[in-house]
Protein 1
Amino acid sequence: MIPVYDTVRSHKFPIVTVSLIAANVLVFLYEIQMIDSELQGLVFTWGLIPSHLWSDPTSTWVGIFTAMFLHGGWFHLISNMWIFLIFGRNVEARMGSIRFLIFYLLAGAAAGLLQSYVLPSSTLPMIGASGAIAGVLGAYLILFPGSRIASLVPIFFIFTLVEIPAFIFLLFWFVSQLYSGLFAIQGSAGSGIAWWAHIGGFVFGLVMVAFFTIHRKAVYRN
């Protein structure tokens, strides 16, 4: 299922969502100017390496946050930013910009910490915004369970646009991450995708959304 848009609209411009997307794009444009050795140095310096979390806490704890702004390729970047745009703007409208920014960063940190806890011996740098975005998805599930997510779904080898209830779309996504995470544990410490970061971010969003949401009546339309 490829999400295209959601049916909830707010009247606030999502300044933090757009700014974070811009920051990720700018960092990636900086990355692609580098030669391979420079890029590898950047990733190993500013990415999050689970096996270094306690042995080199100074640089590693900084990496928990800097890793969120690094991406491994165009598809990695575009897919993350597209999903973030769809779900982030309405969550930001409900939380307020400053609260949303703090929530996003803490969700990303929680994501990295869980991945490091589950696979502590991994020497692969973790990069990407997907853990923080997973936190946004968890918050969206609580705030907009009745929303519908228009998604491209393959039906008899043809992609068809189908509106799927948000709670079904997001619960399906979470179960798929959990299944993949359990498989990664049974397989090896270096699966290439930080499934447990996705799980950690999502659970953080579910649990912490109430502490960041502005409890006031907002104007939305489906």
Protein 2
Amino acid sequence: MAWFRKKNRNRRLDRRHVVLDVKLRSSQARALRVRWGTIAVSVSLATLFSLYVIWCAGEWALNRFLYENKDFAIQQIDIQTDGVIAPDELRRWAGIKPGANLLGLDLVRVKNNLEAWPQVKSASLERVLPRTLRIRVTEREPVAQAYAPVPRSTGGYDMRIFQLDGEGCVMLPLGGRQRSAPLPAAGEDLPTLIGITATDLAPGRHLDTPQVRAALEFVQAFDRSPMMGLADVVRVDVSAPETLQVTTGQGSVVTLALHDFDQQLRRWRDIYDQGVRQGQGNISTLDLAVPHNIPVQWQQAGVTIPPVIKTKPSTKYRKRNV
């Protein structure tokens, strides 16, 4: 019995020794993990701090030697446009501060500033080191105009002119100081579109109704048609859903379909020439929307309004400013 008790006692001592040994090993492993974790965190923080210092130093160097360097201050803005907007006006629209740094200039912002004006169709910018900014502008060319009442501050209304380019973009006419060339004495001499809702005539808005699109297409087709120089388009009524009604300076009222303007204008010329051969005078009414047996009425015999002298489209919007 004594031997058995001694043996059991030894076994209990062995188990205690194993438990203590396991606890010791666990503590050492935990301490090792903590130490390596601390080292990893320290290295990560040191790396991030080093990167931050490098980034700050790089930013300081860029600002000091490039973006704030007076050697790159803009001294010349080279502006060219294919239209009539004065270069000084384009400089104002660009919103570039005097002495701005060429390398630090936000070209996207300047481009957006210019293209925010309806008269500017597109703009491109280029840095020319060390001190020149080059700007190229493509303008919208008005092909027609429309009128809308605008309320006065003192009461009542004034009629304001709005212009439209070939894509239907609504613009306000350029003022005298905004132009590089003075307006002709006769004004813009653009056909007037009637039947457009006044609320649609907002600068920068694009009118895309089928009638307005057709009217603008017709005006441009007319300028390259056989009728150019023989008639003068004064008004185009876009209020009808399927046709355009064109009034000329010679007193003719011509109805057209909303498509195939080149063919309709050739028919107009054929009928015009036939009237000249027969001594009919000027056309009073003509319905070109009818494909066959075209209805035509002639003005009173002996009353002939001479054709316009204009023989080709106006090029006043294709002047180049440097």
Protein 3
Amino acid sequence: MSVRGVDIHALASYLNDFLGIAAIRDWKNALNGLQVENGRPIRRVAAAVDAGEHTIRKAIERDCELLLVHHGLFWSGNRPVTGVRYRRLKLLLDADVAVYSAHLPLDVHPELGNNVLLARRLGLEADGSFAEHEGRDVGVTATCDLDRSELEARIEKALGGAVQLIAGGPERVRRVGVLTGGGGGMVEQALSAGLEALITGEGSHHTWLDAMEGGLNLFYGGHYATETWGVRALAEHVAQRFGLEWEFIDAPTGL
């Protein structure tokens, strides 16, 4: 079947509106939106968590004109185009592959966001929000009635690997927060929101004390593992809307 394709600027404009890019204040180096343009129609989309050299090469090998990612190219800020940055950009420009990145806008999206999709995968339905950042809550809350061990088992099944549990809260859990990625620093906000458990990717050493002494069950499932959901769903959504093909490039970091 022939795929006609779509112009990258038309596709980026749609994504900007759909994700509310302009309205969400992210970290300054996130640079949400179109990070690298190209000059040919988009027919195949590669989705990945990170815009690294490995995922760029895989997108090129698989004849994708667009790499759609959660973590973009410029987290290290305004730096010379040398070393790793040079290699990544040269690969993209030589192959005429575009990059579109959505960080916080994809985390918080009410339909295709990492948080709501992971919660749903765990059998939980988001019923509220917590964890304020720049005037906007970035995590979701849910109600349940589960033994802590059952919740841990569900998380491990969903993420496909072991979970680090800091068991500072009650053994029976009724209020849960989901904040994918590096949400370990939100223990205090989770407690202020009346949560008994926080499911996230990673956090600092001191969060063990924060959770144990504060009375919170803190589940660390890995930054990468908790953030594959949104970018997959977004790529599938775009493919269906514009009649494109898509695939997910899995490149786990183990972190």
